[in-house]
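As described in the Methods, two query proteins were run sequentially through the folding procedure within a single session, without resetting any intermediate state between them. The first query and its resulting structure tokens are shown here.
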Amino acid sequence: MKRLIDIIISGLGLLLLSPVIMVTYFLVRRFLGRPAFFRQVRPGFEGRPFEMLKFRTMLDAVDSTGAPLPDSERLTSFGRFLRASSLDELPGLINVLKGDMSIVGPRPLLMAYLPLYSAEQSRRHSVRPGVTGLAQVSGRNALSWEEKFKLDVWYVDNQSILLDLRIIILTFKKVFLREGISQEGQATMEAFTGSADNAITDGEKR
């Protein structure tokens, strides 16, 4: 039933929102350059990799050594608008239609995070990752990693169609109010380091 709902919502969403997606595509090309899409391999169901699609929100600016500049310097006002409105997430409907993702589920993070999870945190991969999720409507990037993972695992243990519907409704509310877009003191969200000492850099960590 959940997969059927995903197919219906993603299919209708892509059809009805196609004008918005097209306009956003051309605006991203205009203000941020090519490519318009951000593509990155992320862990899906049971940690299996898939290529996640989003609209890019950052410039490809680098320093004199060729290393990417900090997120705060690459994230433009237009990029912030895309994130605040969640328009950058619209290409994710393609991932849902393909079966890589679900409308609701734990957000797909980085492949590099997989060995950093505890056994309990790894259970977030027991379901398909989502375009939106319980952690996103409970605080988004304002939450700590530990709080996010607890909510992800709670969702895995308590998922239902009614819960998904509640999360979808709350997602529209959060987008309208623009809450929890970034972590305090960060342009987006600090990297999850687990038990490792070295931070992982990710310009699109959400």
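Immediately afterward, the second query was submitted; its sequence and tokens are:
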Amino acid sequence: MATTEAVGTGEGQEAAALLERTREAVNPRLRRTVEGLPGSMRRVAMYHFGWEGADGTPAAGNAGKAIRPALVLAAARALRGPGGAEKEDRGKEGRGKEEDAVRAAVAVELAHNFTLLHDDVIDKDVRRRGRATAWTVFGIPDAVITGDAMMALALQQLTEDPHPASASAATRLANCVIELCAGQQADCAFEQRPDVSLDECLRMATAKTGALLGCACALGSLYAGAGPDEADAMDAFGREAGLAFQLIDDLIGIWGDPAHTGKPAGADLIARKKSLPVVAALTSGTAAGAELAELYAGPMTGDDVRRAADAVDRAGGRDWAQAHAADRMGRAVQQLSRAVPDLGAAGGLLALAEFVTRRTR
């Protein structure tokens, strides 16, 4: 796992700049949309995004990294091809411009935060983005209902968009969320099973994480005028990059610094989650894997968490996850080249993919 932030590299600097531009483009519409929620749902959502405190007073705000909306906008730019900026200036009104995809980017970010609100309840997570999760502040019913409303807002962004790609984008997003929910359901079921295979875990992670990243890339390409084959290739790129993202996220869930993650050290181990490095270790056939299985059979104390992390490492789970993340990124680039043969036009997408697979928090 990388020991320095990706932002220190050239790709990381490009990605950081792209994420900042995305937040500047997306957050105003995102905030206006959230502020339109009625009553207590607005209060919960504004708190969740970091724009207000629990008492409704203004807060500095930390609405997240904006990786998924950045993928939408970067995909829209990539599909314009060589001379993209010049072509953008010549584009017909309402067609082919990166800013036309802002509604789609907002929709993807709302869908993502729908999952976060629900995941925090399901996983009983008490910290997100450095402060108490919404359900611990407002209660489970309000957090779940607000998440539902965010998903409705996401589809509303697309169904009310006059862009010619909006209908197909709404269908893709709806199908993606169904797949994502199936992945979440499988993830929950795995926690009750002692015999989860690595292939099952990979399929679950692809559905739970890769599907939405793939959808983000596909939506961006559709808003740039791409056909179904190009959109499918972009979806495949996002899915492969999403699986690499999940592998890194799973490593952070075990070895991430609480000062950076906002969660306790070894949070995934405390919850006895069947994350990818853990399943790789459990199925390794090693003594360390057997030790980990024994630890996972009961509640985790502080010392148990440290022992479990060491067992995952000794059983090869950490090395496997790092190597598999790199392999998936190689596959992602192959898929991207199907939609964008001149990868020079896809610099933003590649920088984002590099960023999420080299991050340490």
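The longest strand covers residues 127-128. We note this only descriptively and draw no conclusion about the first query from it.
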